[in-house]
Amino acid sequence: MIEGPIVMSLRPGPYARMQEGAKRHEFRRRLSGELPGAFLYLAAPVSAIVAYAEFGRPLTGTPEELAALAEADEPGAYADTLRYFDGLERGFALPLSALTPIEPLPLAELQERFAYTPPRSYRRQAADSELARELAARLEAVES
Description:
Layout: E1 6-10, H1 12-20, E2 25-28, E3 37-42, E4 48-55, E5 59-61, H2 63-73, H3 78-84, E6 91-106, H4 107-114, E7 122-124, H5 130-143
Parallel strand pairs: 1-3
Antiparallel strand pairs: 1-7, 2-6, 3-4, 4-6, 5-6
């Protein structure tokens, strides 16, 4: 079975730090299997899918271990990361290996053309969906 693309929601601030190279891991409370890459949907005020992120093998750890990893990437991030994982025994870190901006796909177009509502965390799209084809075309346009 061919799997479709994943769309992951992110706030604009963490995305900007990814672009700068300061944020080298994306942290998640839950993760279902491998996540080699994802299209990034930025929440308001951007409200658009703007990039494709490639990830290395997910790391698992205690909240303290993951907060220490965040602190090594971005000094001052320990407390916020620890708070993010509050109540969990283990969480996940996705090492960022590449970030490719694409032509933005705004929320209005996502809703009108694809009847799409962005996920709270992340969601896999059907491989044969119109949205999957559109995202692939936008990524291909950048890579060619």
